[in-house]
Write a sequence for this structure.
């Protein structure tokens, strides 16, 4: 049975910076109008490291909170890869990987919604409160991602995949007021 793995990285940094310059940024922020394509998976797929795990794609999504408490969802192109020897132009697999990215955006919106409760508070809210909310929903997102992979058998059951696409679309729509519209390249590629 095919298995696909999603790797989450968790950063509590002001920016996600790995010495890259703005003109060579390899992160894609989540936006409703931007969909992943196989050209975004620029990492080298390592067949030898996946010998015991029959993966077809590695999707690396990052849930990040800046020091000013902006919650970002990023796709890391250099750490995402797919096995082009097995899957070429596999739209079902690509939609499965896209939904991992979308699910992470859903949890980012949940975090933003919780943070918004404190943004207008008259008192100073300790950073620890914001970080606790972040950790809670980050952990919840990992469980949700696992459920998604299990129910769809890592995207190999088309009907289940379509059910999940519909489900996540509704979840995103319910929290559309917490979409991050003011993201700039400086937020994720200093």
């Amino acid at each position: 049975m095919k298995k696909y793995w999603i790797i989450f990285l968790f950063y509590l940094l002001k920016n996600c910076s790995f010495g890259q310059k703005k003109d060579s940024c390899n992160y894609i922020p989540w936006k409703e109008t931007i969909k992943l394509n196989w050209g975004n998976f620029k990492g080298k797929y390592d067949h030898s490291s996946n010998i015991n795990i029959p993966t077809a794609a590695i999707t690396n999504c990052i849930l990040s909170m800046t020091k000013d408490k902006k919650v970002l969802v990023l796709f890391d192109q250099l750490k995402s890869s797919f096995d082009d020897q097995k899957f070429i132009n596999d739209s079902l697999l690509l939609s499965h990987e896209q939904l991992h990215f979308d699910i992470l955006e859903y949890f980012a919106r949940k975090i933003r919604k919780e943070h918004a409760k404190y943004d207008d508070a008259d008192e100073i809210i300790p950073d620890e409160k914001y970080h606790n909310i972040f950790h809670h929903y980050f952990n919840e997102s990992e469980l949700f991602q696992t459920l998604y992979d299990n129910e769809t058998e890592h995207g190999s059951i088309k009907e289940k995949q379509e059910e999940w696409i519909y489900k996540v679309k509704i979840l995103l729509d319910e929290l559309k007021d917490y979409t991050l519209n003011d993201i700039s390249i400086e937020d994720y590629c200093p």
